[in-house]
Specification:
35% helix; 13 strands; 10 helices; alpha/beta; four-stranded antiparallel sheet; seven-stranded mixed sheet
Amino acid sequence: MLHDCQWNDEFPQDPAICYLNHAAVAPWPKRAAEAVKAFACENLHQGARDYPRWVQLEHRLRGQLQTLLNAPGKGDIALVKNTSEALSFVAMGLDWTEGDEVLISDEEFPSNRIPWEALAPRGVRLRQVSLNGADPEGALIEAMGPATRLLSISSVQYASGLRMDLARLGRACRERGILFCVDAIQSLGAIELDVQAIHCDFAMADGHKWLLGPEGLGVFYCRREVRDRLHLTQFGWHMVEALGDYDRADWMPASTARRFEPGSPNTLAQHALSASLELLLEVGLGRIQEALQQRTAYLIQSIGALPGARLLSPATPERRAGIVTFSFAGIDSQRLYQRLMQAGVVCAARGGGVRWSPHFYTSQQVLDRALGILRGLLQEARGS
Protein backbone atom coordinates (compact mmCIF):
# COMPACT_ATOMS: atom_id res chain seq x y z
CA MET A 1 0.00 0.00 0.00
CA LEU A 2 1.36 3.40 -1.00
CA HIS A 3 1.50 6.27 1.44
CA ASP A 4 -1.32 8.79 0.93
CA CYS A 5 -0.34 12.24 -0.25
CA GLN A 6 -1.52 15.20 1.80
CA TRP A 7 -1.25 17.46 -1.26
CA ASN A 8 -3.90 15.66 -3.30
CA ASP A 9 -6.14 18.73 -3.16
CA GLU A 10 -3.58 20.47 -5.35
CA PHE A 11 -4.38 18.06 -8.19
CA PRO A 12 -8.16 17.91 -8.81
CA GLN A 13 -7.76 15.97 -12.04
CA ASP A 14 -10.57 14.57 -14.14
CA PRO A 15 -11.60 11.29 -12.44
CA ALA A 16 -12.11 9.74 -15.88
CA ILE A 17 -8.36 9.75 -16.56
CA CYS A 18 -5.28 8.17 -15.02
CA TYR A 19 -2.50 10.69 -15.55
CA LEU A 20 0.80 8.83 -15.97
CA ASN A 21 2.66 11.16 -18.32
CA HIS A 22 4.75 13.51 -16.17
CA ALA A 23 7.85 12.62 -18.19
CA ALA A 24 6.17 14.34 -21.17
CA VAL A 25 3.92 17.23 -20.08
CA ALA A 26 2.65 17.40 -16.51
CA PRO A 27 -0.62 18.81 -15.15
CA TRP A 28 -0.31 21.98 -13.12
CA PRO A 29 -1.09 22.06 -9.41
CA LYS A 30 -4.03 24.17 -8.35
CA ARG A 31 -1.85 26.97 -7.04
CA ALA A 32 -0.16 27.41 -10.42
CA ALA A 33 -3.51 27.72 -12.19
CA GLU A 34 -4.67 30.22 -9.56
CA ALA A 35 -1.48 32.25 -9.96
CA VAL A 36 -2.08 32.52 -13.71
CA LYS A 37 -5.73 33.47 -13.18
CA ALA A 38 -4.73 36.20 -10.74
CA PHE A 39 -2.05 37.47 -13.10
CA ALA A 40 -4.52 37.56 -15.99
CA CYS A 41 -7.02 39.53 -13.87
CA GLU A 42 -4.26 41.94 -12.85
CA ASN A 43 -3.41 42.54 -16.50
CA LEU A 44 -7.06 42.92 -17.39
CA HIS A 45 -7.79 45.57 -14.80
CA GLN A 46 -4.52 47.48 -14.36
CA GLY A 47 -2.02 46.32 -16.94
CA ALA A 48 1.62 46.55 -15.87
CA ARG A 49 1.11 49.14 -13.12
CA ASP A 50 2.80 46.84 -10.61
CA TYR A 51 5.64 45.70 -12.88
CA PRO A 52 8.19 46.01 -10.05
CA ARG A 53 6.31 43.21 -8.29
CA TRP A 54 6.77 41.03 -11.38
CA VAL A 55 10.50 41.70 -11.23
CA GLN A 56 10.53 40.62 -7.59
CA LEU A 57 8.74 37.39 -8.53
CA GLU A 58 11.44 36.78 -11.17
CA HIS A 59 14.10 37.12 -8.47
CA ARG A 60 12.13 34.74 -6.26
CA LEU A 61 11.94 32.19 -9.08
CA ARG A 62 15.71 32.33 -9.54
CA GLY A 63 16.10 31.65 -5.84
CA GLN A 64 13.74 28.68 -6.00
CA LEU A 65 15.69 27.19 -8.91
CA GLN A 66 18.96 27.87 -7.11
CA THR A 67 17.63 25.86 -4.17
CA LEU A 68 16.44 22.97 -6.34
CA LEU A 69 19.82 22.73 -8.07
CA ASN A 70 21.93 23.71 -5.06
CA ALA A 71 23.64 26.28 -7.26
CA PRO A 72 26.13 28.57 -5.47
CA GLY A 73 24.05 31.68 -6.18
CA LYS A 74 21.10 33.19 -8.02
CA GLY A 75 23.57 34.63 -10.49
CA ASP A 76 24.30 31.13 -11.76
CA ILE A 77 20.69 30.74 -12.93
CA ALA A 78 19.37 31.85 -16.31
CA LEU A 79 15.69 31.68 -17.25
CA VAL A 80 15.45 30.29 -20.77
CA LYS A 81 12.74 29.22 -23.20
CA ASN A 82 13.56 25.52 -23.06
CA THR A 83 16.23 22.87 -22.70
CA SER A 84 17.13 22.98 -26.39
CA GLU A 85 17.91 26.68 -26.18
CA ALA A 86 20.22 26.15 -23.21
CA LEU A 87 22.00 23.24 -24.90
CA SER A 88 22.42 25.39 -28.00
CA PHE A 89 23.99 28.16 -25.89
CA VAL A 90 26.67 25.66 -24.90
CA ALA A 91 27.12 24.04 -28.29
CA MET A 92 27.25 27.29 -30.24
CA GLY A 93 29.04 29.29 -27.55
CA LEU A 94 32.22 27.30 -27.01
CA ASP A 95 35.40 27.80 -29.04
CA TRP A 96 35.84 24.60 -31.01
CA THR A 97 38.87 23.34 -32.84
CA GLU A 98 38.65 20.95 -35.76
CA GLY A 99 39.06 17.44 -34.38
CA ASP A 100 37.40 18.20 -31.04
CA GLU A 101 35.03 15.49 -29.81
CA VAL A 102 31.72 15.54 -27.95
CA LEU A 103 30.45 12.43 -26.17
CA ILE A 104 26.78 11.62 -25.64
CA SER A 105 24.92 8.35 -25.15
CA ASP A 106 23.05 6.43 -27.82
CA GLU A 107 19.75 6.93 -25.96
CA GLU A 108 19.49 10.74 -25.92
CA PHE A 109 16.39 12.73 -26.79
CA PRO A 110 17.00 14.82 -29.95
CA SER A 111 17.43 17.95 -27.81
CA ASN A 112 20.70 16.51 -26.56
CA ARG A 113 21.86 15.26 -29.93
CA ILE A 114 20.97 17.79 -32.63
CA PRO A 115 22.91 20.79 -31.17
CA TRP A 116 26.08 18.67 -31.16
CA GLU A 117 25.42 17.28 -34.65
CA ALA A 118 25.12 20.87 -35.82
CA LEU A 119 28.81 21.34 -35.01
CA ALA A 120 29.91 18.97 -37.78
CA PRO A 121 30.65 21.82 -40.26
CA ARG A 122 33.15 23.13 -37.70
CA GLY A 123 34.99 19.81 -37.64
CA VAL A 124 33.62 18.65 -34.30
CA ARG A 125 33.05 14.91 -34.03
CA LEU A 126 30.07 13.50 -32.13
CA ARG A 127 30.39 10.03 -30.60
CA GLN A 128 27.39 8.15 -29.24
CA VAL A 129 28.29 5.61 -26.56
CA SER A 130 26.09 2.59 -25.84
CA LEU A 131 24.58 2.38 -22.36
CA ASN A 132 23.45 -1.24 -22.76
CA GLY A 133 26.23 -2.82 -20.72
CA ALA A 134 26.41 -3.51 -17.00
CA ASP A 135 28.42 -0.31 -16.38
CA PRO A 136 27.07 2.56 -18.53
CA GLU A 137 29.18 5.19 -16.74
CA GLY A 138 32.26 3.05 -17.22
CA ALA A 139 31.55 2.89 -20.96
CA LEU A 140 31.32 6.67 -21.16
CA ILE A 141 34.51 7.14 -19.14
CA GLU A 142 36.37 4.56 -21.23
CA ALA A 143 35.33 6.44 -24.38
CA MET A 144 36.99 9.65 -23.15
CA GLY A 145 40.18 10.41 -25.01
CA PRO A 146 42.63 13.23 -25.75
CA ALA A 147 40.20 14.83 -28.23
CA THR A 148 37.18 14.71 -25.91
CA ARG A 149 36.17 18.25 -25.09
CA LEU A 150 32.74 17.77 -23.55
CA LEU A 151 30.39 15.07 -22.23
CA SER A 152 26.69 15.82 -22.45
CA ILE A 153 24.36 13.30 -20.82
CA SER A 154 20.75 13.11 -19.69
CA SER A 155 20.47 12.60 -15.95
CA VAL A 156 17.66 10.12 -16.67
CA GLN A 157 17.15 8.65 -20.12
CA TYR A 158 13.73 9.63 -21.48
CA ALA A 159 12.76 6.25 -22.97
CA SER A 160 14.21 3.66 -20.62
CA GLY A 161 14.22 5.75 -17.45
CA LEU A 162 17.85 4.77 -16.78
CA ARG A 163 19.25 7.01 -14.05
CA MET A 164 22.92 7.94 -14.42
CA ASP A 165 25.54 8.20 -11.69
CA LEU A 166 26.27 11.86 -12.36
CA ALA A 167 28.78 12.29 -9.54
CA ARG A 168 30.98 9.56 -10.98
CA LEU A 169 30.81 11.08 -14.45
CA GLY A 170 31.46 14.56 -13.09
CA ARG A 171 34.57 13.43 -11.24
CA ALA A 172 35.89 11.70 -14.34
CA CYS A 173 35.35 14.82 -16.43
CA ARG A 174 36.97 17.12 -13.88
CA GLU A 175 40.03 14.83 -13.61
CA ARG A 176 40.46 14.89 -17.39
CA GLY A 177 39.69 18.56 -18.00
CA ILE A 178 36.49 17.70 -19.91
CA LEU A 179 33.43 19.94 -19.69
CA PHE A 180 30.38 18.23 -18.17
CA CYS A 181 26.88 19.12 -19.39
CA VAL A 182 23.73 17.58 -17.85
CA ASP A 183 20.31 17.54 -19.49
CA ALA A 184 18.30 17.35 -16.27
CA ILE A 185 14.81 17.54 -17.72
CA GLN A 186 13.87 14.00 -16.61
CA SER A 187 15.16 14.39 -13.05
CA LEU A 188 14.74 17.97 -11.82
CA GLY A 189 11.62 17.90 -9.67
CA ALA A 190 11.61 14.10 -9.46
CA ILE A 191 14.85 13.29 -7.66
CA GLU A 192 17.43 15.33 -5.81
CA LEU A 193 20.04 17.02 -7.99
CA ASP A 194 23.08 18.91 -6.67
CA VAL A 195 25.07 20.63 -9.42
CA GLN A 196 28.00 21.24 -7.07
CA ALA A 197 28.19 17.65 -5.83
CA ILE A 198 28.18 16.25 -9.37
CA HIS A 199 30.83 18.73 -10.59
CA CYS A 200 28.84 19.77 -13.66
CA ASP A 201 29.63 22.87 -15.69
CA PHE A 202 26.20 23.21 -17.30
CA ALA A 203 22.75 21.89 -16.43
CA MET A 204 19.40 22.63 -18.00
CA ALA A 205 15.76 21.57 -17.74
CA ASP A 206 12.29 22.58 -18.89
CA GLY A 207 9.58 23.45 -16.42
CA HIS A 208 6.74 21.46 -17.95
CA LYS A 209 7.64 17.93 -16.80
CA TRP A 210 8.55 17.00 -13.22
CA LEU A 211 8.60 20.66 -12.16
CA LEU A 212 4.83 20.78 -12.84
CA GLY A 213 5.05 24.11 -14.67
CA PRO A 214 4.07 25.49 -18.09
CA GLU A 215 5.81 24.96 -21.40
CA GLY A 216 7.99 27.79 -22.64
CA LEU A 217 10.12 28.40 -19.53
CA GLY A 218 13.17 26.49 -18.36
CA VAL A 219 16.37 26.86 -16.37
CA PHE A 220 20.02 27.01 -17.42
CA TYR A 221 22.72 26.61 -14.79
CA CYS A 222 26.16 27.77 -15.88
CA ARG A 223 29.07 27.38 -13.50
CA ARG A 224 30.64 30.73 -12.75
CA GLU A 225 34.16 29.62 -13.63
CA VAL A 226 33.20 28.67 -17.21
CA ARG A 227 30.66 31.40 -17.93
CA ASP A 228 33.07 33.59 -19.89
CA ARG A 229 34.00 30.65 -22.10
CA LEU A 230 30.59 30.78 -23.79
CA HIS A 231 30.42 33.32 -26.60
CA LEU A 232 27.00 34.92 -26.66
CA THR A 233 24.76 34.20 -29.63
CA GLN A 234 21.77 36.35 -28.66
CA PHE A 235 21.69 40.01 -27.66
CA GLY A 236 19.17 42.50 -26.31
CA TRP A 237 18.19 44.93 -23.59
CA HIS A 238 17.77 42.36 -20.81
CA MET A 239 21.22 40.74 -20.98
CA VAL A 240 23.29 43.83 -20.23
CA GLU A 241 25.04 44.61 -16.95
CA ALA A 242 23.38 48.03 -16.58
CA LEU A 243 19.84 46.67 -16.76
CA GLY A 244 17.29 49.49 -16.88
CA ASP A 245 19.70 52.21 -18.04
CA TYR A 246 18.12 52.56 -21.48
CA ASP A 247 19.94 55.79 -22.40
CA ARG A 248 23.39 54.28 -22.02
CA ALA A 249 25.28 54.07 -25.31
CA ASP A 250 27.94 51.61 -24.20
CA TRP A 251 27.07 48.20 -22.83
CA MET A 252 28.57 44.98 -21.63
CA PRO A 253 27.02 41.57 -20.93
CA ALA A 254 25.77 40.92 -17.42
CA SER A 255 28.36 39.25 -15.24
CA THR A 256 25.69 36.78 -14.10
CA ALA A 257 23.86 34.10 -16.11
CA ARG A 258 21.31 36.78 -17.00
CA ARG A 259 23.64 37.39 -19.95
CA PHE A 260 21.84 34.47 -21.62
CA GLU A 261 18.45 36.25 -21.43
CA PRO A 262 18.38 38.74 -24.32
CA GLY A 263 14.85 40.10 -24.20
CA SER A 264 11.62 40.49 -22.28
CA PRO A 265 10.93 37.73 -19.76
CA ASN A 266 8.00 35.33 -19.93
CA THR A 267 6.21 36.87 -16.96
CA LEU A 268 3.07 34.77 -17.36
CA ALA A 269 4.98 31.47 -17.23
CA GLN A 270 7.12 32.77 -14.38
CA HIS A 271 4.04 33.19 -12.20
CA ALA A 272 2.94 29.62 -12.89
CA LEU A 273 6.36 28.01 -12.47
CA SER A 274 7.11 29.87 -9.26
CA ALA A 275 3.84 28.63 -7.76
CA SER A 276 4.63 25.05 -8.79
CA LEU A 277 8.15 25.24 -7.35
CA GLU A 278 6.71 26.61 -4.14
CA LEU A 279 4.75 23.37 -3.83
CA LEU A 280 7.74 21.14 -4.65
CA LEU A 281 9.93 22.92 -2.10
CA GLU A 282 7.13 22.71 0.46
CA VAL A 283 6.94 18.95 -0.04
CA GLY A 284 10.72 18.57 -0.22
CA LEU A 285 12.75 16.80 -2.91
CA GLY A 286 13.74 14.01 -0.54
CA ARG A 287 10.11 13.24 0.16
CA ILE A 288 9.20 13.47 -3.52
CA GLN A 289 11.99 11.07 -4.45
CA GLU A 290 10.85 8.59 -1.80
CA ALA A 291 7.24 8.77 -3.00
CA LEU A 292 8.30 8.21 -6.60
CA GLN A 293 10.43 5.23 -5.62
CA GLN A 294 7.36 3.69 -3.97
CA ARG A 295 5.19 4.28 -7.02
CA THR A 296 7.68 3.05 -9.59
CA ALA A 297 8.46 -0.01 -7.47
CA TYR A 298 4.74 -0.79 -7.27
CA LEU A 299 4.31 -0.46 -11.04
CA ILE A 300 7.41 -2.53 -11.78
CA GLN A 301 6.23 -5.31 -9.48
CA SER A 302 2.63 -5.23 -10.74
CA ILE A 303 3.43 -5.01 -14.46
CA GLY A 304 6.27 -7.50 -14.19
CA ALA A 305 3.87 -10.09 -12.78
CA LEU A 306 1.65 -9.97 -15.90
CA PRO A 307 2.10 -12.75 -18.50
CA GLY A 308 4.55 -11.84 -21.26
CA ALA A 309 5.70 -8.65 -19.58
CA ARG A 310 9.06 -7.18 -20.53
CA LEU A 311 10.28 -4.31 -18.37
CA LEU A 312 12.43 -1.89 -20.35
CA SER A 313 13.25 0.28 -17.32
CA PRO A 314 15.74 -0.53 -14.54
CA ALA A 315 14.29 -2.27 -11.48
CA THR A 316 16.96 -1.30 -8.94
CA PRO A 317 16.18 1.86 -6.91
CA GLU A 318 19.51 3.58 -7.62
CA ARG A 319 18.94 3.22 -11.36
CA ARG A 320 15.36 4.46 -11.63
CA ALA A 321 13.58 7.78 -11.19
CA GLY A 322 9.94 8.20 -12.23
CA ILE A 323 9.77 6.31 -15.54
CA VAL A 324 8.46 2.77 -16.08
CA THR A 325 8.57 1.57 -19.69
CA PHE A 326 7.28 -1.86 -20.67
CA SER A 327 6.13 -4.08 -23.51
CA PHE A 328 4.46 -7.49 -23.84
CA ALA A 329 5.38 -10.47 -25.97
CA GLY A 330 3.07 -10.79 -28.96
CA ILE A 331 1.43 -7.40 -28.32
CA ASP A 332 1.97 -4.37 -30.54
CA SER A 333 3.16 -1.64 -28.18
CA GLN A 334 1.96 1.22 -30.37
CA ARG A 335 -1.50 -0.30 -30.54
CA LEU A 336 -1.50 -0.92 -26.79
CA TYR A 337 -0.53 2.69 -26.17
CA GLN A 338 -3.37 3.92 -28.37
CA ARG A 339 -5.89 1.71 -26.58
CA LEU A 340 -4.66 2.87 -23.18
CA MET A 341 -5.06 6.49 -24.22
CA GLN A 342 -8.58 5.81 -25.49
CA ALA A 343 -9.39 4.22 -22.14
CA GLY A 344 -8.20 7.29 -20.23
CA VAL A 345 -4.67 6.24 -19.24
CA VAL A 346 -2.59 9.25 -20.28
CA CYS A 347 0.89 7.92 -21.11
CA ALA A 348 3.44 7.83 -23.93
CA ALA A 349 4.95 5.46 -26.49
CA ARG A 350 8.71 5.54 -26.09
CA GLY A 351 11.67 3.25 -26.68
CA GLY A 352 9.68 0.47 -28.29
CA GLY A 353 7.24 0.21 -25.38
CA VAL A 354 4.64 2.03 -23.33
CA ARG A 355 5.97 4.60 -20.84
CA TRP A 356 4.18 5.35 -17.58
CA SER A 357 5.43 8.18 -15.40
CA PRO A 358 3.53 8.97 -12.18
CA HIS A 359 4.53 11.76 -9.80
CA PHE A 360 4.79 11.96 -6.02
CA TYR A 361 1.09 12.74 -5.62
CA THR A 362 -0.26 9.95 -7.86
CA SER A 363 -2.61 7.88 -5.73
CA GLN A 364 -2.84 4.14 -5.26
CA GLN A 365 -6.35 4.34 -6.71
CA VAL A 366 -5.07 5.87 -9.97
CA LEU A 367 -2.30 3.29 -10.32
CA ASP A 368 -4.65 0.39 -9.61
CA ARG A 369 -7.23 1.68 -12.06
CA ALA A 370 -4.56 2.02 -14.78
CA LEU A 371 -3.30 -1.49 -14.04
CA GLY A 372 -6.84 -2.83 -14.25
CA ILE A 373 -7.33 -1.20 -17.65
CA LEU A 374 -4.00 -2.64 -18.81
CA ARG A 375 -4.99 -6.16 -17.72
CA GLY A 376 -8.31 -5.88 -19.54
CA LEU A 377 -6.69 -4.70 -22.76
CA LEU A 378 -4.15 -7.52 -22.63
CA GLN A 379 -6.90 -10.10 -22.17
CA GLU A 380 -8.85 -8.59 -25.03
CA ALA A 381 -5.79 -8.57 -27.32
CA ARG A 382 -5.13 -12.22 -26.57
CA GLY A 383 -8.76 -13.19 -27.11
CA SER A 384 -9.27 -14.54 -23.64
